[in-house]
Write a structure and sequence with these properties.
FAD/NAD(P)-binding domain; 4 domains; five-stranded parallel sheet; 16% strand
Length: 756
């Protein structure tokens, strides 16, 4: 490819050089054109087709090479061929030439620009994909914008060639007509400046701006239409600048930003500040994972030169530690902190009454109506509970409720079923089996962690099974049942053990469980390869995904479209431009860090959107699954690259070679980097190993700012640390792309220096 690019550059240079040698410029003056007009007219009368063809070819070449003098050539077209034939010939010739210049820019420059300014170009391409033709048309309507510059810049984008051609053909027509018509009156033209008077230039500018203005007008009309039914209730003044519904990650960040810029903001939260992440998800699960990992390390202390020991502990104490961790972090998200920052916090349920009014049913039984110019809905998501027959009868917990339920137990649940093979299910399955539960994980799909590459899924499964988890893939849950106990000695002993265990729980839970034990044993019925199988359990965790909270906020009354999430545009606006959605309730990702990321855009757009709107940026999204070993990735993996037909190269470094990993007895896993073929531009990274989520940060930064593997290789990494894995992965790429021909000559050079 580089050879072809060099060849194209050489041909362009030769063509331009030939034009210079032939003194092309001397023919492209108004005086020369006037002097030659009669001869050109006579020649055209004698050989009209030949003259038209040669003129067409010259125009195409001059435009394609971006050579100065297009104005003179256009005037010549009007002088020789007249208005209509001249307009026809010049219009097509200029459009074809501009398209060739567009393709030359794309072929020669785009890769180099993309490798250095990848993120900026990606942002531009996103805009081009949505409204590129519209803006190109506007630019073409304005002769004050150099067409050469347009050809060059548009060639760097991924605009389709055909789109570029036909938009240019139509957009340049008006300006072309002016110059061709001037050419028909060549004798009266004294200077090129006189062709386009300030008034005419102004007219063209206004003409070019017309599509943009028209778009604004259409948007205003659409806005007026969507608000029409609410015109009579629109407040003349507003109590607040912003109301935020939901006190999770997205809601807290939105409120914080509003308060930071001195806006009057109210945050409405009915339950716990901090949302799911602090109280039910990220924080408690990581606390549990840590305790489980310590227990696992105690059992395998021989790896560290110590003696293996069986950990003894109170499960209630482990669960209490989870609560203690939550309580330690709670002040960061507390009402007191946000009140101190300038946020009004109301505890209650917020419901949209109209696009500017929220009715808050306060927890104390009273209600309050608030008005605001803008509203952000950040209601979050909840665990999805599958409609399994008998599930309610046997009882279950979710990732939200298990913390309050399991803290009642003194002992870890003996038999645990985890329904779901996603990140949450895998984390909980591994943690509880390390704490002593016999865990069966049930996944309907062919493999767990299905969004990861197959090798990652297999490694995760092997790790879970090594810890004792029974992983059942391809098993579909059908129903739950309660079956009578067999009257045997072992069954009687089991009943006694269960009764003793229940006696250590609170009275309510014990009585409920005892009633069930009197009737029978709990089973999950699954289907695999057409055969049913019964899996006994004491506790069942539903971890099959989360769904956005869409009910109870007045969305349906306002006609705000919802599917699986609240439908928003790229600015996070709903059909009402002053109502925004952010976080899990908006999608497309259900990560705390993306919720906070979206919140910035939602808050800024809500407060300053009448001046400037910012599109939410999802170009570089990291995520991690905190099993052991951790799985973290950003950008594309191989599975997604194949699905999207994106060409890529794979570079892999195995962590079993890393000094620090060996010293820590964590020598397993890998760093896998996808790059553009032949380039060091990073398309995506998958890391499996200890501290993978932390190691990923370097690649997130690199991708965000367009840095390639060469930059990572050239960065000093502390020795001995796990972060060296990133440098060594870059080194693997460098070795695979070493310039072998150059090295062969270098070898000969060194031999010559030795006197050989």
């Amino acid at each position: 490819m580089r050879f072809r690019q060099a060849l194209v550059l050489l041909l362009l240079a030769l063509a331009i050089g030939a034009l210079v040698v032939l003194d092309w410029g001397s023919y492209l003056s108004l005086e020369q054109l006037k002097a030659s007009q009669d001869s050109f007219v006579r020649l055209h009368a004698e050989q009209p087709i030949m003259v038209a063809a040669v003129y067409f070819l010259i125009y195409v070449v001059a435009t394609a090479l971006s050579f100065p003098g297009a104005t003179i050539i256009t005037l010549a077209g009007g002088a020789v061929f007249g208005l209509w034939w001249g307009l026809l010939i010049v219009s097509f010739a200029s459009s074809i030439g501009a398209t060739l210049a567009f393709l030359a820019s794309r072929f020669v420059l785009r890769e180099a620009v993309a490798s250095r300014f990848g993120q900026r170009l990606a942002d531009i391409n996103a805009g081009v994909d949505k409204a590129g033709a519209f803006y190109l048309f506007s630019l073409r309507m304005m002769p004050v914008v150099p067409f050469v510059l347009i050809n060059l810049l548009m060639g760097l984008t991924r605009m389709k060639t055909w789109t570029y051609y036909w938009v240019s053909q139509i957009g340049m027509l008006a300006g072309t007509a002016v110059y061709v018509n001037a050419g028909t009156q060549l004798a009266q033209v004294d200077s090129l400046r006189g062709i386009l008077s300030p008034a005419l230039l102004g007219s063209f500018v206004l003409l070019g701006l017309f599509p943009l203005l028209a778009r604004r007008v259409v948007a205003a009309l659409q806005k007026r239409r969507v608000y029409a039914r609410w015109a009579s209730v629109r407040p003349k003044t507003f109590d607040r600048n912003l109301i935020v519904i939901g006190g999770g990650a997205a809601g807290l960040v939105s409120a914080y930003i509003a308060a930071a810029v001195k806006a009057k903001v109210t945050l409405v939260e009915a339950h716990k500040m901090g949302g799911d992440c602090l109280n039910y998800g990220c924080v408690p699960s990581k606390a549990l994972i840590k305790s489980a990992k310590v227990a696992h390390q105690m059992r395998h202390a021989a790896r560290y030169g110590l003696s293996d020991v069986v950990p003894t502990f109170s499960f209630k104490a482990v669960m209490q530690r989870v609560r203690d961790v939550i309580q330690a972090i709670e002040p960061h998200d507390s009402i007191e902190r946000y009140t101190g920052l300038g946020v009004e916090v109301l505890q209650g349920y917020g419901k949209l009454v109209n696009p500017w009014t929220v009715e808050v049913a306060l927890n104390d039984g009273t209600s309050q109506r608030l008005t605001a110019r803008s509203i952000v809905i950040a209601a979050g998501a909840r665990p999805f509970v599958p409609p399994l027959p008998g599930l309610d009868d046997v009882g279950y917990v979710t990732s939200d409720t298990l913390w309050d339920e399991f803290v009642k137990f003194d002992e870890v649940p003996p038999r645990l079923v985890v329904l779901g093979g996603g990140p949450i299910g895998c984390e909980l399955a591994q943690s509880f089996t390390r704490l002593g539960s016999h865990v069966t994980q049930v996944e309907m799909g062919a493999r767990i962690m299905v969004r990861e590459d197959e090798e990652v899924s297999e490694l995760a499964k092997a790790s879970l099974e090594a810890d004792g988890v029974q992983v059942l893939t391809g098993h579909k849950a059908l129903r739950c049942e309660v079956r009578p106990y067999s009257v045997t000695a072992s069954a009687a002993k089991q009943s006694m053990d269960r009764h003793a265990s229940l006696a250590m729980t609170n009275k309510k839970s014990a009585m409920a469980e005892e009633r069930l034990s009197m009737t029978g044993e709990k089973f999950l019925i699954v289907e695999h390869n057409g055969q049913e199988r019964a899996i006994p359990f004491d506790q069942l965790i539903c971890a099959v995904g989360r769904v956005a909270r869409l009910q109870g906020y007045g969305l349906e009354d306002l006609g705000i479209p919802t599917h699986r999430t609240i439908e928003t545009n790229e600015y996070l606006q709903t059909i009402y431009p002053n109502i925004y959605a952010a976080g899990d309730v908006a999608g497309p990702f259900q990560f705390t860090h993306t919720a906070a990321h979206q919140a910035w855009y939602a808050a800024v757009n809500a407060l300053f959107g009448e001046w400037k709107l910012f599109k939410a940026d999802y170009s570089v999204i990291p995520w991690a699954t905190f099993i052991d070993p951790e799985v973290a990735r950003v950008g594309l993996n191989e599975q997604e690259a194949k699905e999207k037909n994106i060409p890529y190269e794979v570079t892999q470094y195995d962590i079993d070679d890393l000094d620090r990993a060996i010293a820590d007895s964590e020598a397993h896993g890998f760093v896998k980097v996808l790059t553009v073929p032949g380039k060091d531009k990073i398309l995506g990274v998958t890391i499996v190993g200890a501290h993978a989520a932390d190691l990923l940060a370097e690649y997130v930064l690199a991708m965000k700012h367009g840095l390639g593997l060469n930059k990572i290789l050239g960065t000093i990494h502390t020795y001995p640390t796990m972060s060296e894995a990133n440098k060594y992965a870059a080194g693997e790429w460098k070795r695979a792309h070493a310039p072998q021909k150059l090295l062969a000559w270098v070898k000969k050079y060194h031999a010559w220096k030795r006197g050989e």
